[in-house]
Amino acid sequence: MATQRILDFLATRRPTGPCLVVDLDVVRDNFRAFEKALPDSKIYYAVKANPAPEILRLLAAMGSSFDTASVAEVEMAMDAGAPADRISFGNTIKKERDIARAYQLGIRLFAVDCVEEVEKIARVAPGARVFCRVLTDGEGAEWPLSRKFGCVPAMAVDVLRHAKGLGLDAYGVSFHVGSQQTDLTAWDRALADAKTVFATLADEGIVLKMVNMGGGFPTRYLRDVPAAQAYGQAIFSALRKHFGNAIPETIIEPGRGMVGNAGVIKSEVVLISKKAANDNVRWVFLDIGKFGGLAETMDEAIRYPIVTAHDGTETAPCVLAGPTCDSADVMYEKTPYPLPLSLTIGDEVLIEGTGAYTTTYSAVAFNGFEPLRSYVI
Amino acid sequence: MATQRILDFLATRRPTGPCLVVDLDVVRDNFRAFEKALPDSKIYYAVKANPAPEILRLLAAMGSSFDTASVAEVEMAMDAGAPADRISFGNTIKKERDIARAYQLGIRLFAVDCVEEVEKIARVAPGARVFCRVLTDGEGAEWPLSRKFGCVPAMAVDVLRHAKGLGLDAYGVSFHVGSQQTDLTAWDRALADAKTVFATLADEGIVLKMVNMGGGFPTRYLRDVPAAQAYGQAIFSALRKHFGNAIPETIIEPGRGMVGNAGVIKSEVVLISKKAANDNVRWVFLDIGKFGGLAETMDEAIRYPIVTAHDGTETAPCVLAGPTCDSADVMYEKTPYPLPLSLTIGDEVLIEGTGAYTTTYSAVAFNGFEPLRSYVI
């Protein structure tokens, strides 16, 4: 997944220290694949996945909309050329003054999952559109989905009714099937819940208009994942099944699926050692770890492909760890990672599929190491 | 643990957004308590715990030495006024060019835990002192200690012998009993291992001079911890038991124990909600979370005391979560946190014991939220 452009950049520029290189051509291809797979859905790129200005500008120019988590992300999207009506404030947890600020900037679409949040919006963003997030079980997702966002469908009905009562536009329902979701039936289950909310409110004369189907679209790490086209078909079938001929406006919010496979991290092997003379597992220490951008290795959740110059030669299992003086800075230990026996201190390795959720997770200065640098080409 | 100075600062300055406030008076008291508890040990402050320049300057002026994890931390300590001979490069995982750079800056004390690292040091830091870290089990520590650092004692003998053979000064042994260690016997077990290495090498004519007893000294979170004096007595007894009348030079590396209780994070309640109308556990969302500085809540390891204006009134269990659009950004869920029923959206809360391992762990810009601000007073 390291494209020729990325390899050429690294060979020519020889950046020192760990860095992420993102190939915009891949982002462009991903955007088109989503457009093609779900031609009737609007694409709201999840800015949090990678807010690099070059990525936001490319997507804004291609007509993408944007899902944002904070006022800062709203401003980044606008700076990149997105008009306010293509931006959703998709965080269900917002300070009232941040809602007010977003409203001043022209934002009219807000996520909620409780009446308390609806009340904030009613006070400072009168008439805005709100969509209520419903809980899903996240089964089949590789990155853990807690119960943090959303409420049960019965409560979503109350929340949207309350919004309508306060003069807001009760606009729709959202869900998220869990990040790196590889079970295509997850959308079917979530859309069944969404339909329940639509139908219950319709009986009261409140007509919802939109389903925000969130993200969850995976990127390829070590295992193959279904292509965008397969997701599109599964989702369209589920929409047809639950909504019949009255399919509402739909939104998707790809983040990982848009940029994950567009980026590669270049890292250096700092040390290879053992803990005892007769150990059969080597410890391989890289100059990037859990606090330098690979936070998603938490609990060994995301397993990145690692490319070395010795690939194809004999491998043996390694514990893979980062460079900091923190004992928690270990990426893969419970399931050791096979790496070539001939790997040597000073070797460069490429960590693939790292275009999403790396640069911004990076700690600001842990152990004195600077945050992950990023090049977008 | 929010001192009057901290409370006055917050009341007067009214900083917006989450922030850490550190009281230097507490750091000064902690330094003196360590000096008094272990009068024969040199104190190497673990810079990674909190590298704020004001803290480093205070400690440098008080005569502290510094344990550093990177060239950047070496430079911070020197900028704060520490001479090179009071600085240890204590990370066992170093790039050869970083060792060379530290050597150029005058650093002569390096940590190792394998022959590969010894060889780097011999090449670019000739004649330097090295100490070899031995593995400990970390039992009794609240922050997980993996096998990442150190080697078994038998291998430490080989490593130090190798160092001597390459012209380095085989200077001593180090260990770390695990951060937030509340079992006073942990030092006894580790010192027994250290003594084994000393004795084995002495038989070969290699006389080690120093034991680096690392950190692990706890700070008070929700439960009382033994005072520095109790640690001092336990450690001195263990030294006497294992080394008799030939107690070597000793070093301690407090980080959390030096600054943990000196800092308080001010945060705001962004949202309080439920997931279903009949839920009995509230979700309380703060404007700081796992990615904004509270990384040590990972696996609910560190449980911070939280002070509200409603303390003393009836409480009920809450799930406590951060403000980002990341489902992993939940601090306490398995063991809900009791908070006052009268807690309200917009309330300020104080998170105590947050002087260590917060600011630098903070993500650089996750979800567009700026890194944790810090005021040292």
From TrEMBL, chains A, B:
Pathway participation: Amine and polyamine biosynthesis; putrescine biosynthesis via L-ornithine pathway; putrescine from L-ornithine: step 1/1
Cofactor requirements of the protein: pyridoxal 5'-phosphate
Molecular function as annotated in GO: ornithine decarboxylase activity
Catalytic activity: L-ornithine + H(+) = putrescine + CO2
Annotated positions of the N6-(pyridoxal phosphate)lysine modification: 48
A single GO BP: putrescine biosynthetic process from arginine, via ornithine
Pfam families: Orn_Arg_deC_N
Protein name as annotated: ornithine decarboxylase
Species this chain originates from: Mesorhizobium kowhaii
